[in-house]
Amino acid sequence: MNILVINCGSSSLKFQLISSATEEVVAKGICERIGIDGSLTYQPEGGEKEKSALAMPTHKEAIQFVVEALANSKTGVIKTLDEIQAVGHRLVHGGEKFASSALITEEMIQAVEECNELAPLHNPANLIGVRACQELMPNVPMVGVFDTAFHQSMPDKAYMYGLPYEYYENYKVRKYGFHGTSHRFVAERACEILDNKDAKVIVCHLGNGSSICAVNAGKSVDTSMGLTPLEGLVMGTRCGDIDPTIMEFIAEKEGLDIKGVMAVLNKKSGVVGLSGTSSDFRDLNDAMDAGDERARLALEVFAYRVAKYVGSYVAAMNGVDLIAFTAGIGENDHWVRENTCKYLGYLGIEFMPEANNVRGVETVLSTPDSKVKVMIIPTNEELAIARETLALV
């Protein structure tokens, strides 16, 4: 079975065609600048990456171009649309309605739309991709895989805020968490490595958007992101945890309204705000090596916050068997991994710096005598979505 995995943003659309038999990527690519000038980057398995400028007024045209690329007589990997047997869609927010992936029906779409106010930038865009695929492939079964679903196993003591209870009752204000598909994938792999389905695992999904998850016996028991992805770690452009009074203070000092303050917290903060130069950790490492003190500060704040969350989740689970680094920074930034683990010696971790100079490869970073195993475990959200889709169709 060929499964098309779609990750649809407001002006972009990432895709992979995955063979369920081999779990190999048959082709992949991205449509960018949808609604502006438009471009398609496409790469078949074992082939060269090609980028084409194409007019994409809407996501429907983007999906059409993806299908045409997949079936192209020269570089395509299928002959007809019939060779796509299922479509898996990344959906960001399912609120409390979805604790697992679900077949996409009209009733399901309506339920997701009711969660739109919890993710106004993501859910509507995700659903645009669903509608476009339904129009072009009306007879193909489709599955929605939610970022939030994995975290629905959190106990109420972990997801409730110290706010008037009626805000939860009336508006569902609570912690939801994100990156759930990645956290589940990496935690399952960690349990396989340990040969222990009841293992206590802490997954550090570190990228431009970062979150940490405590997973006990395969279930999420706490995670660092909250009602929105703003809570938790210092990230590329997001501030993470702050004193809420700062919002009022900045508003008065800078003459900003609430939207202006939120723009600062979401888009101008994090490591880009601290460094004043970049949200790209490669740039920050280069700048630190060149003696830039603010780049050093940004990286140290990031690693320190990661270590603090790891420590708190050890307490939440009363122990930990494996700590996994994953995603763009977690898999590729040796400085962040090593400097995070420097804070964790009290756990009996014996870190191997000589094993740490790798990128994107599953690797054990702790010694055989270490009381807690530390690893790089690459994530694969597209494969996870494909697996969820296959299970349901």
Describe, in plain words, how this protein is organized in 3D.
α1 packs across α3, α10 crosses α11 and α11 packs across α13. The longest helix is centred in the C-terminal third of the chain and has 25 residues. By secondary structure, the protein is α/β, with parallel strands linked by helices. The mean pLDDT is 94. It has two domains: 145 residues, 2-Layer Sandwich (Nucleotidyltransferase, domain 5); 181 residues, ATPase, nucleotide binding domain (Nucleotidyltransferase, domain 5). An eight-stranded mixed beta sheet has the order 5-4-3-2-1-6-8-7, with helices on both faces. It has a six-stranded mixed beta sheet with strand order 11-10-9-12-14-13, with helices on both faces. It is globular. The chain is 37% helix and 19% strand. The protein has 14 helices and 14 strands.
Secondary structure: helix percent:
25-40%
Q: CATH topology of the largest domain, anyone? A: Nucleotidyltransferase, domain 5
Q: From the coordinates shown, what is the CATH architecture of the largest domain?
A: 2-Layer Sandwich
User: DSSP helix count?
Assistant: 14
For this structure, what is the CATH homologous superfamily of the largest domain? Answer: ATPase, nucleotide binding domain
How many beta-strand elements? Answer: 14
Radius of gyration: 21 Å
